[in-house]
Amino acid sequence: MKPIFLLLAFSCTTAFGQITVDGSAGQNQVANNAPAVIVDPALTVTTSLTIPQFTVKITGFVSGDILAVQGSLPSGITSSYNSTTGQLAVTGNGTAAQYQAILRSVTFRTTSSATTSRTILFQAGDGLVQVYDGHYYRIINGSYTYATAKTAAAALSLFGWQGYLPTIMSTDENSFVFNTIGRGWLGASDEFSEVNAALGTNTFANQAASENRWYWVTGPEKGTQFSTGSTVISGRFAAWNGGEPNNSNGEHFAENVYPNNGSWNDAQGTNLNNALVEFYTPGTTVDIMHTRTIVMVATQLNIAAPIVPYQLQDAAVTVDPALTGYSVSTFTAARVTVSSGFKSGDALTFGGTLPSGLTGSYNSTTGVLTFSSSSAVSIADWQALFRTVKFSSSSNVVGNRTVTFSLGNQVAFSNGHFYEYVGTAATWDNAKTISEGRTYLGLQGYLVTITSADENEFIRQKLSADAWTGASDNFSYINSALGTTTYAAQTNSEGKWYWVTGPERGLQMTTANATAGNLPPVFGTTYNNWNLGEPNNSSSNEHAGSIYSGGTNPGKWNDLNGASTLGYVVEYGGMASDPLLQLTASRVIGINQVLPVHDLRFDIAGKSGNVELDWSTSAEENTKSFAVLHSTDGVSYEVLGNVKAAGNSSVTSSYNWVHQQPGSGIHYYKLAQSDIDGKVIYSEVRKISLTAGEFLLYPTISSASINVKLPASKGSIVILNASGVAVRNHVLSASVTSIQVSGLPAGVYFAELSASGHHQVFRFIKK
Fold first, then answer.
1. Per-residue pLDDT band at 117 (split at 50, 70, 90)
2. Domain boundaries 135-279, corresponding CATH code
């Protein structure tokens, strides 16, 4: 902020107008060649003054960029856009409310292929001023003497702020004025009458008395001496050129004319120069500018609506007949994938005549419709083709499906990321290095991270063999992912599995290895899908994560020696360095009911070691029975029993089954509904995890102690800080024990309880 030196013992109060222009802080985005977007629908204009004009400019303007005002304008206000300069002028006297409404309707679009960001500047006034440190500046080009320049500057105002020849308080301001505004007269003088007028007193009787005593004689700083000759007064600023001021032939007025960053010269007042103008009045607010960045999306796919309804075994339904695509690029391949909920019998088809050289085929095993072309295909042709894609299913399994459209030759999940299975065997280290060296349409590659059951299943379906993932409990990889030396050695990180690649790098999943026949204790609520008894660090050298492709536990995770060789999965998308691309668009196929059962609702709950299954239908036609199916691996199911169905009913029918003491671990349940004619349909799968007995921790917020309850008379507790480092370790000899935590620093902690081969992690806060 420029300092203000008050040398007068009196002041006068003047009423000044105020104006504030503000708006959204975040960025907006639009694709090249896409319909126009409103730049800032939240822009605000606040003032009681009449506004004569607003200017909207594009910084980074490219030919083809277009600004426009939507709707009709109030009487007396007009708008015009200069397609050569990228400037929109809105002119005519109006209120703040009128201009706010107009500016909120300003849209941007472009027909150019340039993908650089644009910045849109909304500026009250004629757009001729520039801002520095809350002050505004402009230039009046012409031939002005010092006196006429001073008069011309004073004749201008900016929403109540008076204009004046600039007063310069710092090197940065001096550089700004010279390089951004231009060369011209400054508000500095050693002429005795000018100085006396600025001081408001007859301090100097003649020129000899004031000679070389340089003062600011304009603006809020007028009356402030800043130098004696070239010697700057302490705490003040001057930028005299070498040998200046020298009073050659009666030079008593300052100008910033030297090319070395605007150094100053003293000049005769009759010299002709440009008039520089500064606007600022202390104690009032004039904030006339607001900017918003428009990020260009080089490629963008959009769906028209999120859900399309479908009845199983009905005729095919078009997935999205109004899908839109915009891109500055062409593509030789595309995919349409049943990316979530895929079931055997699901099918994707396409219609119309394909362009020459373009082929399409559907893989009923993976749920992927593949398009390939021998030459580049425009986004308009891909849009037309995608709009013909239809979904149908001969499956009996109820449950929504997600269909994802993607450009390029890799398959995409509904999160917008792409996945590539590489079958060439490599060690874990090499797989990580190779993955991070790959890119896909500008997206950075990395060894895959898995954060949901749907993503895990999607990846499993794409595997041809077991594959490496980006998981590890190796202390050096974890430290690198966290950006700090959290673990000093492998003994400290052992069993603490993290994602060490991709956007999730540094995300912890477990707090210890699993014991035989059990799952590992989970850190927080992070998704895990370890096989029973894994990770186990067999042979004391298994620190690399992998995923099974098949066998008895497809999709489950295992820890292996990283020196082994496997294929691997490369994931693309989600990195901060990635360009802004929307190469995918997903739509849900809503399969909420299937005849002859209407509105099947199915829930399970664990109670006292049992699992209670409750389901209901709103109506039934020719139904025979419901078979209750159970699995411990999610693959192989056994029939627990059968429940007679309502047959024909137009009212709600409710059913119940109790699975007595299935034991600890993860359990999967689904229903198989049989019709009188022999047709069978399946419900969605429900999953529940049971522990042997019950672990408890209370209170969860404490400054002194916590109580823990075990399902056995003996056990242990490990307390970890928020970084996953163990800070306490106790052996427990009673089922209920009080643990002192008063000595711990305040913060978030995790308590891992263990008893009888079972584990559970609780979060608590030490006050």
1. very high
2. 3.10.100.10
